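Re: that backbone. Tokens:
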């Protein structure tokens, strides 16, 4: 159901996050990841544990891990 549209100069990455169970969880994870420089959009889906991130360039996995950790969840890796 997730549409991936890559525009020039844009990278879309899907991460797996464990522990999300509701809309509040989605908002917490999205809010933290969206603060990473270069991120243009974030869509978290609690039911699948997937977080789709669009950014100007590939993101540093440790920056994403730190943002997810700050939100109180765990980054399981890339989907």
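Recovered sequence:
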């Amino acid at each position: 159901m997730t549409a991936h549209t890559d525009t020039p100069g844009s990278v879309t990455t899907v991460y797996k996050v464990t522990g999300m169970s509701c809309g509040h969880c989605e908002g917490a994870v999205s809010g933290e990841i969206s603060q990473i420089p270069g991120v243009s959009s974030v869509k978290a889906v609690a039911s699948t544990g997937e977080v789709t991130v669009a950014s100007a360039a590939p993101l540093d996995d440790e920056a994403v891990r730190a943002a997810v950790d700050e939100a109180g969840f765990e980054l399981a890796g890339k989907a």
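Helices lie at 23-33, 61-70. DSSP finds two helices and four strands in the chain.
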